[in-house]
């Protein structure tokens, strides 16, 4: 059994990382209430801003920042262009003493959160000029693999990390490195991670959810001490919610994890599709690394462009498949309207399905008759299961890579047909069309033994110490049925049901 996101909550899942109460030491944070008075601040604020001492809670921010800076903050957070996302301002003179900062401003539980880091001088124009040629290169990609390869290469060129990966999440929340670009360092070559799988437990639930909302996460120096935010709790007793913060300090457990992987600094960019994490662009560096905020902003823009192009490619692929499904339905409809009975039409359906959904066998059970072709259960085996096919499995189109998990009786023929895509055709009766897939012996190469990432009850879950490739042979399951294949099946099922209905109407009309 491998770690899965649906496992019971672990200690990891419970760590309140958005209430961590500290920032990374490359910037400072002040949270003020609507009256413009300090509620929380990081203890490095005085040093960063050149103040004599740390302002007390309750201090008006107008006593810390210049009038111009206060107006900028007010406009960024509450002006007509304000959104729920952090606003960025580059090269701001916060105190009126010619000390320039790059700022990220957002609202959190009614507080104005002002984050600032020393301005990276003069680079902004250079960073912006990078984006046009980069987008032009991304645009040449025609498939997902090519797009991801290009993105990994461009992000590394732009940001200079030692390793840039495109990582894709699977349905079980584990993930796989699908593209990678690595620094060429003959003195200390880096192991490739391309193709490695990482178990779901490496990114706990709340970290995953936070990453989906706040898609750009930098850790500039894994080993740097984090800077506490004081006071820990506001006047209502609540800690500052750092969910949308740019500077949020990282969890100690994650520190151990990254250190075990040899990472000294990281940048993670979430790729979100239909509100779900599709994948991420993950950048690792062996030593500390802090790209300028303006460069990070350009990298964010690049990743958003990447997401749009990814979506465009995936939509086009889905459209092609939908066309194929439409043709399939038209043909099935045409042939069946010729008056052939459903059971006699199996060879024709099988012929038409071939190009749309790969399968090793097919069964059709209609009006009490069983027909099968290829690697399929025998009639007696199928009849034993038939009553369960439409009832136990919810009544709709159902896909599984190992039917015996749901219907233990299916174990009797699992050696031939283990994966099933089931299309129940009539409610109440047992008519169904089933596509079968033979068991597949697959080798999954994990980064470290994933079983070690699962804590036993009462045990604290620790990050794995080893990331050495660990191979697992997965047997007894078929290849996955893709969402597109399931969609084609669902559509075919509707067509077949319609045909059955029409035939029975014709029949009753003849009788009348
Ligand atoms: C966070 N772990 C994360 C994040 C990623 C990973 C992407 C969120 C983004 C980030 O913080 O950068 C994991 N990073 C990966 C993986 C790759 C990568 C898989 O580059 C592959 C290439 N981690 C564990 C265990 C725990 C754990 C067992 O392995 C818990 C006990 C915790 N991971 C953990 C925590 C966070 C995290 C707490 C949140 C870190 C934070 O933001 O403070």
Automatic annotation (TrEMBL):
Reactions this protein catalyses: ATP + protein L-histidine = ADP + protein N-phospho-L-histidine
Domain of life: Bacteria
Residues in Phytochrome chromophore attachment site domain copies: 143-304
GO biological process, one term: detection of visible light
Keywords, comma-separated and alphabetical: ATP-binding, Chromophore, Kinase, Nucleotide-binding, Phosphoprotein, Photoreceptor protein, Receptor, Sensory transduction, Transferase
EC id: 2.7.13.3
Enzyme class, broadest EC rank: transferase
A GO MF term: protein histidine kinase activity
Protein's name in the database: histidine kinase
Source organism phylogeny: Bacteria, Pseudomonadati, Pseudomonadota, Alphaproteobacteria, Sphingomonadales
Residues of the whole record sequence present: 2 to 513 of 855
């Amino acid at each position: 059994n491998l770690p899965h996101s649906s496992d019971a909550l672990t200690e990891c899942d419970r760590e309140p990382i958005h209430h961590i109460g500290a920032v990374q030491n490359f910037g400072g944070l002040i949270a003020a209430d609507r009256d413009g008075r300090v509620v929380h601040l990081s203890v490095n604020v005085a040093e960063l801003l050149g103040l004599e001492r740390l302002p007390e809670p309750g201090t008006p921010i107008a006593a810390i920042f210049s009038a111009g800076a206060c107006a900028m903050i007010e406009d960024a957070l509450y002006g007509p262009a304000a959104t729920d996302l952090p606003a960025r301002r580059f090269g701001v003179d916060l105190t009126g003493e010619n000390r320039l900062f790059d700022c990220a401003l957002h609202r959190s539980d009614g507080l104005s959160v002002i984050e600032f880091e020393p301005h990276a001088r003069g680079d902004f124009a250079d960073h912006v000029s990078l984006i046009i040629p980069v987008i032009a290169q991304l645009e040449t990609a025609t498939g997902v693999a090519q797009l991801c390869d290009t993105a990994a290469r461009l992000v590394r060129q732009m940001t200079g990390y030692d390793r840039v990966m495109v990582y894709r999440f699977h349905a079980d929340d584990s993930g796989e490195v699908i593209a990678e670009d690595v620094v060429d360092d003959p003195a200390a070559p880096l192991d490739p991670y391309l193709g490695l799988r990482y178990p779901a437990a490496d990114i706990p639930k709340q970290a995953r959810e936070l990453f989906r909302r706040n898609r750009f996460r930098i850790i500039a120096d894994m080993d740097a001490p984090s800077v506490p935010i004081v006071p820990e709790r506001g006047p209502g007793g609540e800690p500052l919610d750092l969910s949308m913060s740019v500077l949020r300090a990282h969890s100690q457990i994650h520190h151990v994890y990254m250190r075990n992987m040899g990472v000294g600094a990281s940048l993670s960019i979430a790729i979100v599709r239909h509100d779900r994490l599709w994948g991420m662009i993950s950048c690792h560096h062996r030593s500390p690394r802090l790209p300028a905020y303006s460069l990070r902003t350009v990298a964010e823009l690049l990743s958003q462009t990447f997401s749009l192009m990814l979506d465009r490619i995936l939509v086009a692929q889905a459209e092609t498949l939908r066309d194929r499904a439409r043709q399939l339905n038209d043909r099935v409809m045409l042939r069946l309207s010729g008056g052939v009975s459903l059971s006699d039409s199996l060879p024709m359906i099988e012929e038409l399905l071939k190009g749309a959904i790969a399968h090793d066998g097919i069964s059709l059970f209609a009006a009490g008759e069983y027909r099968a072709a290829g690697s399929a259960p025998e009639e007696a085996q199928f009849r034993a299961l038939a009553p369960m096919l439409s009832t136990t499995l919810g009544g709709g189109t159902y896909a599984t890579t190992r039917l015996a998990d749901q219907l233990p009786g299916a174990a009797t023929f699992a050696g031939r047909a283990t994966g099933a895509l089931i299309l129940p055709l009539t409610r109440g009766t047992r008519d169904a069309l089933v596509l079968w897939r033979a068991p597949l012996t697959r080798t999954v190469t994990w980064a470290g033994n994933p079983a070690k990432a699962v804590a036993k009850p009462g045990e604290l879950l620790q990050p794995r110490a080893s990331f050495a490739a660990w191979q697992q042979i997965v047997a007894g399951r078929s290849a996955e049925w893709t969402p597109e294949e399931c969609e084609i099946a669902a559509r075919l099922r509707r067509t077949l049901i319609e045909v059955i209905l029409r035939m029975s109407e014709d029949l009753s009309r003849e009788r009348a």
